[in-house]
Amino acid sequence: MKLILVFLSFFCFSIFTSHAQLLKGLLKNNAKDSSVANGVAALGNLVKGNGSGTGLSKDDIIDGLKQALEVGANKSVTQLSSLDGYFKNNAIKILMPPEAQKVENTLRNMGLGNEVDNAILTMNRAAEDAAKSAAPIFVNAIKGMIIQDGMQLLKGGDSAATHYLREKTTASLTTSFKPIVEQSLVKVDATKYWNSVFSTYNKVPFVKKINPDLTGYVTEKALDGLFYQVAQEEQKIRKDPVARTTDLLKKVFAQ
User: Fold this and answer.
1) How confident is the model at residue 211 (pLDDT cuts 50, 70, 90)?
2) Res 202 pLDDT > 70
3) Are residues 140 and 29 in the same domain?
């Protein structure tokens, strides 16, 4: 009888031990499987460009940056093409070019300040008028822009994307925008006032005659103003959730 009890006890212990070992093995395998699964997922993220830890793909980032610039460009055009969009914005108001500062001072001292004021006003009016046609030019430049390192721009300064846009597209934008500015200068009589100012100045005895390139100067300053305003809009999108008006902007700039 005792022998039977001993045998049964040994048998039960053996079964318990084998089940425990089996359970331990299963748990170990599951842990390995989980590690493998996690590794595969991480590798997949790297392949898709998610290795940054943001959960964003490279395409998400680049598309988001371009969309931010497009939104900024459209809003900037709306603002700057309105009456006094340039003229009453001290940050971008177009003044006489540096080489013409002497002209301005001389004519004002001669009592011809109105002519100078009209020249300055009409330069700004020309920029405002030309800005109405700037949106498609900017948007096309943005869409065609190649961004190699979107993450660097996303994590860069408050206006990193605008700075990159300016660096990459100023030459092409100038070529496209200059004829529009030239038409606007004629439309608002800026050319007439400009010529009046400089022809009057050049008649003054013993002064060096100058005649700056009006179209080139206003084109440059008008683009400066547009880039400045786009940068302001980019900063809003980066800092203010309310400015993120699309799902993509919310996704990219919420990181």
Assistant:
1) confident
2) yes
3) no
Describe the crossing of helices 160-187 and 113-131 by its angle, rounded to 10 degrees.
120
12, part of any domain: yes
The CA distance from 133 to 61, in Å, is 28
The reply to whether 53 falls in a domain is no
Tell me whether residue 155 is in a domain: yes
What total number of domains does the chain contain?
Answer: 2
Q: Helices 190-202 & 113-131, crossing angle to 10 degrees?
A: 150
Q: Each residue of 116-167: pLDDT tens digit?
A: 999 999 999 999 999 999 999 999 999 999 998 999 999 999 999 999 999 9
Q: What is the pTM of this model?
A: 0.77
Range of the domain at 140: 58-253
Distance CA 223, CA 170 (A): 8
Do 34 and 130 lie in a common domain? no
Helix and strand numbers (H, E) in the chain are 10, 0
Residue 254, CA distances (Å) to 54, 235, 237 in order: 10, 13, 10
Give domain status of residue 233, yes or no: yes
Mark whether 87 and 156 lie in a shared domain. yes
Task: State the sign of the Cα–Cα–Cα–Cα dihedral 207, 208, 214, 217.
Answer: negative
